[in-house]
Amino acid sequence: MSSSFPQYQAVITGDVVRSGRLSNQKFRNVQEIIKRGGDELSQRFPQSMPLPIQMFRGDSWQFVVMKPVDALRIALYFRAYLRAEATIDTRLSIGVGTIDSPSQQSVGEGRGEAFVLSGAWLDKKTPSRMRFAMSNQTPDTWWPARSIAAVLSVLDVVVARWTSAQARAVCGALLEWKQERIAENWPGEPITQQAAGQHLARAGWEGAREALSYYEEVMVKWWSQ
Question: Distance (Å, rounded) from C-alpha 184 to C-alpha 52?
Answer without folding.
Answer: 28
